[in-house]
Automatic annotation (TrEMBL):
InterPro entries: C45_proenzyme-like, DCD1A/B-like
Segments forming a coiled coil: none
Keywords, in A-Z order: Signal
UniProt name for this protein: Acid ceramidase-like protein
Organism: Tieghemostelium lacteum (Slime mold)
Signal peptide span: 1-22
């Protein structure tokens, strides 16, 4: 009772003060976008290393050219110390995280995998996952991981284990695609906010990178917002397509350990596809593993669609489809013309924040609106990418990188509370070797 009164008081106080976004828990962002040019730090035979961002908030941009092996080798060489720092701390962290998830969600992993984790540890589960996915994975991914291992001075087996972790975790996350009548210039904007849980011991926060691939063996030039030493794509943009994902908690079908790891499949969408239909064909025609929501932005149609992606089911949602596919549609998730969105909560979400911000800015949505969204909804703790298809730009924000090893009681600052950094992909896509 007492708590309800306090909440009522806070809500009415916000109304009296005319707070614009009273349905959101967060406030407006504090910083303007950092838009100075990137600085070249180093070059190697198939790559270049840049840094961009204010001094205590930096992201490396790494240009990679050549065959899969050469691009892997270039990343491993240029980011050797960063890759090693992440790998040295990765297994301790992921062990704690996976065990917490097992405690929290009864049916979070197939029982035999939980058994393996309890008896032999997380590395054994990662090895099993690698075996189960091997025959569905194109060899170029293995060649690139071998190059990365050789460049960074790591064992190939370790690199492979690290690349299996997305198959074992669940992340929250939000996504928005806005286009045509919804945006200020009619262009397509896509938001991807990754909510991973901000453990101060998560080494991924130390070295966020944007890798820009210039493959010589076919496909588009494309970029991935990721971490030093991780070649999968949880977030990425190619100029043709933008991708993002979110764990689909309410999926009630079966999962499979056998199939194409989803973060490699999403990367192939960036490298090879030019439309939502091509991407959907790729999704339909591959053996899928986990259940996630995938966001697909496409430059050729200037639209965005969200996909329920799972081992058994694929379902597609656009701005006219009730979401999630339940009747009645939750009041907190009205259809909004030319906007497709999913907030960070388990779906169906009853939180009105995201729809309220989008509706309030409808017709005027721009980069700043989507930056405001992350701060108001407090979404995107580990990283955030906003893709501007009109100008080929990516706006990136990352969690705080300082304090390693983290002192007791240290809480990293989430990406949504930090300064966004503009990454000029128009420049990086077109820079020759
Ligand atoms: C540049 O990269 C090379 C590896 O290609 C490395 O040996 C060297 O230390 C790097 N230089 C700087 C200034 O980081
Ligand atoms: C994206 O679409 C715009 C407008 O149709 C076009 O000018 C641009 O070349 C397209 N970009 C790519 C990478 O195809
Ligand atoms: C599973 O979820 C779907 C909606 O996604 C629903 O139609 C179906 O009834 C559910 N099945 C079970 C067994 O709960
Ligand atoms: C960066 O450091 C300065 C002081 O050195 C501090 O005022 C500022 O808040 C920091 N910015 C971020 C984003 O951490």
């Amino acid at each position: 009772m007492f708590r309800n009164k306090i909440i009522l008081f806070v809500v009415s106080f916000a109304l009296i003060c005319g707070q614009v976004y009273s349905q959101c828990s967060g406030g407006l962002p504090q910083y303007p976008v950092f838009n100075e040019q990137a600085t070249l730090l180093n070059t190697t035979s198939n790559g270049k290393l840049y840094v961009v961002g204010p001094s205590n908030n930096t992201v490396n941009v790494v240009q990679l050219y050549g065959t899969p092996y050469e691009m892997g080798y270039a990343q491993g060489t240029l980011l050797k110390s960063q890759v090693n720092e992440i790998y040295d701390n990765f297994f301790n962290y992921i062990t704690v995280m996976v065990n917490e998830l097992i405690e929290k969600y009864a049916d979070y992993l197939p029982l035999e995998l939980v058994d393996v984790i309890e008896k032999f540890g997380v590395k054994a589960a990662l090895d099993l996952t690698a075996d189960a996915t091997k025959k569905y994975t194109p060899s170029r991914f293995f060649e690139e991981m071998q190059g990365l291992a050789d460049g960074a001075g790591l064992e190939y087996k370790t690199v492979l284990q690290v690349h299996m972790f997305p198959e074992l975790i669940k992340a929250a996350c939000s996504m928005v695609g806005a286009y045509n009548s919804a945006t200020v210039n009619g262009g397509l904007l896509q938001l991807r906010a990754l909510d991973f849980g901000l453990d101060p011991w998560n080494p991924l926060r130390l070295h966020p990178i944007v890798s820009v691939y210039h493959p010589t063996e076919g496909g588009h030039t494309f970029s991935v917002l990721t971490w030093a030493g991780f070649i999968g794509s949880l977030s990425g943009y190619s100029g043709h397509m933008g991708i993002c994902e979110k764990y689909w908690f309410h999926y009630n079908g079966t999962a499979s350990r056998e199939g194409f790891p989803w973060h490699f499949l999403l990367r192939d969408i960036l490298q090879y596809d030019s439309s939502i239909n091509e991407a959907l064909n790729r999704i339909y025609n591959n053996e899928r593993t986990c259940s996630i929501f995938v966001g697909l932005g496409s430059n050729s149609t200037n639209t965005f669609e969200a996909v329920e992606y799972s081992h058994q089911v694929v379902r597609v949602f656009d701005d006219q489809t009730p979401f999630p596919a339940y009747e009645p549609q939750p009041p907190a998730h009205p259809n909004i013309q030319d906007v497709v969105y999913i907030d960070k909560y388990t779906q169906p979400s009853n939180n009105p924040c995201l729809a309220s911000v989008l509706q309030k800015n409808l017709g005027q949505i721009d980069i700043q609106t989507l930056i405001d969204v992350t701060s108001l909804l407090e979404t995107g703790d580990l990283h955030i990418g906003i893709y501007d298809f009109t100008y080929n730009q990516m706006y990136v924000s990352v969690a705080s990188q300082d304090n390693w090893p983290p002192p007791a009681n240290y809480s990293p600052t989430p990406a949504y509370a930090r300064q966004f950094i503009q990454v000029d992909l128009e420049y990086f896509f077109n820079e020759s070797q």
